[in-house]
Design a protein that fits this description.
The complex is a heterodimer of chains A (about 350) and B (about 325).
Chain A: H1 2-7, E1 23-34, E2 37-49, E3 54-58, H2 65-72, E4 80-88, E5 91-92, H3 98-104, E6 109-112, H4 126-137, H5 142-155, H6 161-164, H7 174-185, E7 192-196, H8 204-221, E8 224-229, H9 232-238, E9 241-246, E10 249-255, H10 256-261, H11 266-273, E11 323-324, E12 329-330, H12 343-352
Helix pairs in contact in A: 4-5, 4-7, 5-7, 7-8, 11-12
Chain B: H1 2-18, H2 24-27, H3 36-46, H4 52-64, H5 78-113, H6 118-132, H7 135-149, H8 173-179, H9 183-220, H10 223-231, H11 235-246, H12 248-265, H13 267-272, H14 278-287, H15 291-319, H16 321-325
The chains are: A alpha/beta (about 350), B mainly alpha (about 325).
Family (chain B): Belongs to the binding-protein-dependent transport system permease family.
Main location (chain B): membrane
Keywords (chain B): Cell membrane, Membrane, Transmembrane, Transmembrane helix, Transport
Chain lengths: ~350, ~325
């Protein structure tokens, strides 16, 4: 494995002369077999993450955004079928033997999860769990690993780390637990950190703290950061680039400023329009009509077309691929011809139609 | 705790008074039963002519000085009898628990990890047989196969009667023989122990394996298991270090309960394998209406429950850090 890494070090220049991104996902699909039925939870994720870049992945619950990233790390359950390509530092991860994946997970790519209450082992001290992460990838003594754990707790701004390191998760508050989880994730100076809804289970004030811890670590350690969230506000404030996921595939990918100023997919437009705005007084909040399709019961053509206000006959037949529309991407037949976007207008128009459920 | 002990003693004592049998039949020979003088003398000698409350108080007083009374049958002190019998049972039960917990935990973990596979179904069948086959059936069957047909294992008994036994220090034949450096006796005692311990352990392993399986399935779906995998931990480490440790609290309860239960519940196994332990002593005492022995066995059994519960509670604290605070 070391030979493969040395043949393609971070920032290596490949044949085409372009800088290879840290993480490059192409056509990732994840299918599950259950009781004879097969359905696809992820139907095509394409994503690049450069070194030191923050990429947001936005989508509703069940859209496949988490499953996709779990699959990239080989963490999906045994009945999952993963196809496509996930290249990390030029090294293909899909189909890599479990032993080699273990050397990458936690060392080069770390992942943290939504619920800090349950993502720490209740019967092990926080320090022991961080030290475990260190010792799984570095040859250090138990004592050195514990010293490193104290250092890491200090890094994520946990007060009195020398005392805290010997405590159990139940003695930590929710926000502190998430900090400890982050400390554990960066224990081996990874290149990439995938954070799956890192703030969803926390109080609003704590959310901001956790995000600032993540951001400062990302800047200090030069991490690539993938921020999976359903909160557009988090993405707007922290990401460089955004991928919007709808029913298992990326429907739009753009820089944050481009995406919010001029979304080129009707679903993204709907999402942005449904953000409550303090400056406007609206009687009702905007919501996208209908609900996301159930897995295994996708409509034909574009999966979004039954809910789309711009849909035409073609949309029910042909599933649009992710087009390159000038350095950004959209999976809409009308990506370049959609009318100019004003979230207020869209909301008003939709309210006039009476399409919002009371 | 002291109240519980008093309760056990009282109930054990009272139970004997509500039985229909007359303890005199155990003391006085049948031909002498029509001789009022002999009967009266026996009553006076064993204190059976006194009223119940007085007998109870005498018994309690003796008990406080460690005297469990004299057996009607062996005419020895019940305490001495039990001390002679208890180590045999404890040795059997310890060995059975080693079999039972090891088998139970290993099968439970495998069944959960390979859920709905052949291993899972096999473990389920093994557990089902273990907890539903009566030991007199499985014990006799295994004795027949391994001792009579294959001649791999010795027949009933604790040790070959022709062997000279080492001095009893712990009362555990395997340990005493090792302490005395007598490997012949050690080997023989171990071979004798194997089958009854397995039969007894099998009954326990069924319950433990089902419990471990159910708890493992629950724990394996929690997020910290995913976190451990995301750290790069091996599957073995994830299952044993992270998941299994979290199932230990309910498992300990069942292990503790089974242990206490086996101390007095090994009756059938001890009878089949001619094991000179508490179970066979209890059966003999009950058959002969040997009241002091019955009360003694009941008290020791009750104490065994109390002590194992106490040990289980202490182990809880080790297994579950959340208990330590409260």
């Amino acid at each position: 494995m070391s030979a493969q890494i040395s043949s393609a070090p971070p920032g290596a220049v490949d044949k085409t002369g372009e800088r290879e991104p840290l993480l490059s996902i192409r056509g990732l699909r994840v299918g599950f077999r259950r009781a004879g039925n097969q359905f696809e939870a992820v139907r095509g994720i394409d994503l690049n993450v450069a070194k030191g870049e923050v990429v947001g992945i936005v989508g509703e619950s069940g859209s496949g955004k988490s499953v996709g990233m779990l699959a990239a790390l080989g963490l999906t359950s045994k009945n999952a079928v993963v196809t496509g390509s996930v290249r990390f530092n030029g090294d293909e991860l899909v189909g890599k033997p479990a032993r080699e994946m273990r050397k990458i997970r936690g060392a080069r790519i770390a992942m943290i999860f939504q619920d800090p209450l349950s993502s720490l082992n209740p019967v092990m001290t926080v320090g022991a769990q961080i030290a475990e992460a260190v010792r799984l990838h570095q040859r250090v003594t138990r004592k050195q690993a514990m010293a490193r754990a104290v250092e890491l707790l200090h890094l994520v701004a946990i007060p009195q780390p020398e005392r805290r390191v010997n405590q159990y998760p139940h003695e930590f508050s929710g926000g502190m637990r998430q900090r400890a989880v982050i400390a554990m994730a960066v224990a081996n100076d990874p290149d990439l950190l995938i954070a799956d809804e890192p703030t969803t289970a926390l109080d609003v004030t704590v959310q901001a703290q956790i995000l600032s811890v993540l951001r400062s670590l990302q800047e200090r350690l030069g991490l690539g950061l993938v921020l999976i969230t359903h909160d557009l506000g988090v993405v707007a404030g922290h990401a460089d680039r955004v991928a919007v996921v709808y029913s298992g595939r990326v429907v739009e990918q753009a820089s944050v400023s481009e995406l919010f100023a001029d979304p080129r997919h009707p679903y993204t437009r709907g999402l942005i329009a449904s953000i409550p705005n303090l400056e406007e007084s609206r009687e009702r909040l905007f919501s996208i009509d209908g609900s996301p399709p159930a897995l295994g019961r996708l409509p034909g053509g574009c999966a979004f077309h039954p809910r789309c206000i711009h849909a035409e006959a073609r949309c029910g037949i042909e599933d649009p691929p992710l087009h390159d529309i000038g350095g950004r991407f959209s999976a809409c037949h009308f990506a370049t011809t959609l009318p100019p976007f004003h979230s207020a207008t869209l909301a008003a128009a939709s309210l006039d139609k009476g399409s919002v459920a009371p | 705790m002291p109240f519980l002990v008093l309760g056990i003693v009282t109930i054990a004592f009272l139970i004997t008074t509500v039985t229909k049998g007359d303890p005199l039949t155990a003391i006085v020979a049948e031909q002498q039963m029509s001789n009022p003088e002999v009967v009266a003398a026996a009553k006076a000698r064993w204190g059976l002519d006194r009223p119940l409350p007085e007998r109870y108080m005498i018994y309690l007083g003796n008990l406080l000085s460690g005297d469990l009374g004299t057996s009607f049958i062996t005419k020895r002190n019940v305490g001495t009898d039990i001390l002679y019998r208890l180590p045999a049972t404890l040795e059997l039960v310890f060995a059975a628990m080693i079999f039972g917990t090891t088998l139970g935990i290993v099968l439970g973990v495998l069944a959960a990890y390979f859920r709905n596979s052949l291993i899972d179904h096999g473990a389920r069948l093994f557990a089902l047989f273990g907890s539903s086959l009566p030991v007199f059936w499985s014990g006799l069957g295994l004795l027949f196969i391994f001792s009579v047909m294959l001649n791999w294992l010795p027949g009933p008994g604790r040790v070959d009667a022709r062997l000279a036994l080492p001095p009893g220090i712990t009362g555990f034949l395997t340990i005493d023989s090792l302490l005395a450096g007598n490997l012949t006796v050690f080997k023989d005692a171990l071979w004798h122990l194997l089958l009854p311990a397995f039969v007894l352990g099998w009954t326990v392993s069924g319950t433990i394996s089902r419990l471990v399986r159910a708890n493992m399935l629950d724990v394996m779906s929690r997020e910290f298991v995913l976190t451990a995998r995301a750290k790069g931990a091996s599957e073995f480490r994830v299952v044993i270090v992270h998941a299994l440790r979290n199932t230990m609290v309910p498992t300990l309860t069942v292990i503790g309960y089974s242990f206490a239960y086996l101390i007095t519940g090994a009756v059938l196994t001890e009878t089949i394998f001619s094991w000179p332990g508490m179970g066979s002593y209890a059966v003999e005492a009950a058959r002969a209406l040997d009241f002091p022995a019955i009360i003694g066995v009941t008290i020791v059994g009750g104490l065994a429950f109390l002590v194992t519960n106490l040990i289980t509670d202490i182990l809880y604290v080790v297994a579950n850090p959340r208990v330590r605070l409260s």
